[in-house]
Amino acid sequence: MSEKRTEISEIGEFGLIDHLNEKIKIRHTSTLKGIGDDAAVIESGDHVKVVTTDLLLEGVHFDLSYAPLTHVGFKAVAVNISDVAAMNAIPKQITVSIALSNRFSVEAVDALYSGINAAADHYGVDVVGGDTTASRSGLVISVTAIGEAKKEQIAYRSGAKENDIICVTGDLGGALVGLQILEREKQVFMSNPDMKPELEKYQIVTARQLRPEARMDIIHELRELEVIPTSMMDISDGLASELFHICKASKVGVTIYEDKLPIDKQTYDTAVELGLDPITCVLNGGEDYELLFTIDQKDFLKLEKHPDIHFIGHVTKEEDGKYLVTKSGTAAQLKAQGWKHF
Ligand SMILES: Nc1ncnc2c1ncn2[C@@H]1O[C@H](COP(=O)(O)OP(=O)(O)OP(=O)(O)O)[C@@H](O)[C@H]1O
Ligand SMILES: Cc1ncc(C[n+]2csc(CCOP(=O)(O)O)c2C)c(N)n1
Ligand SMILES: [Mg+2]
């Protein structure tokens, strides 16, 4: 009899994480939150520390034929800072681990680190360690970020309540559309190396893909306005998929409105040019690294006039389900069709 073999694709990335978590035991009362949020939360004196790690692999997360190494370095840091922001914490330190094949020179590693150091400067964090090894399969970068907050400031995925308002920062879909443009220009170049890529027209969307920004500005503004989100996470896999995580963790439902979804004009026009539905890009495009959060209605007036926070819907009872109200007024069931690793 052959042993049972289950393909990872049968349970998916999140199914696999849940499966692993079943056998993981928490031993310390200082571990306030383990697996299941954007970062772990650890008690540390009168504050808490948050700890998060994200891995970037050549061929999966970036393609060096169009992503400059300095941008890859910046992005590796920014995506981790984004997870610290998603806990409503302030980042303080990072560690950086790299695996390099013999294709990389000292100058190439310097280029990567110019981006890492620029991001450390930009987000005000110290690079305090890491690891360096050989790789047999291209460049691998793993960053761990550590942040701080007061215990009561931490925003978990699990705190959304019925009637809370659902907020999204910035605009969505740009990183996916930018990726499609970069891939298109790569194909054109590969079929005819004399062709120069035409990228000037697409600078906003390609920048969204190559050099994303973590929304620490919003975290500082929320503190000034004395607003603590009832729940929060960052948008790395796509808005719809992230809403499903908030619903599952908070045991709630959501209703969002198509006409409230934020999309940039260049993202919209480029999506149409590529034959993509702009709303699908907003709902399912990954890597925008904007913040998705919920607020109590009492805090609405404090944020109402903010130019970069959009109110896209409200939290409902779990049994009311997850719905998108289209421009024509019909309620369609929301589907989580974000980025899939498996
Ligand atoms: N292999 C693993 N072992 C233990 N915990 C894991 C593992 N992979 C992920 N996790 C944990 O599972 C939770 C969800 O991880 P996930 O990567 O989806 O979140 P995220 O970091 O917000 O997303 P992204 O990687 O897109 O930024 C986190 O708490 C994370 O630390
Ligand atoms: C070359 C190349 N191919 C595909 C993509 C798209 N992509 C990769 S990972 C991811 C989601 C977040 O991943 P994670 O959850 O691991 O942080 C997305 C949308 C890309 N950026 N570059
Ligand atoms: Mg996250």
* CATH class wording of the largest domain: Alpha Beta
What's the count of strands? Answer: 13
Mean pLDDT: 96
Low-confidence stretches: none
Q: Largest sheet at a glance?
A: 7 strands, mixed
The largest sheet has its strands arranged as: 8-10-7-11-9-12-13
Give an overview of the whole structure.
This protein is an alpha+beta fold and 342 residues long. The chain folds into 2 domains: 8-153, PurM-like, N-terminal domain (60s Ribosomal Protein L30, Chain: A); 165-333, PurM-like C-terminal domain (Phosphoribosyl-aminoimidazole Synthetase, Chain A, domain 2). The protein has 10 helices and 13 strands. The strands form 2 sheets. It has a 7-stranded mixed β-sheet, with helices on both faces. The longest helix is centred in the middle third of the chain and has 18 residues, at 106-123. The protein is globular, with a radius of gyration of 20 Å. The relative contact order is 0.15.
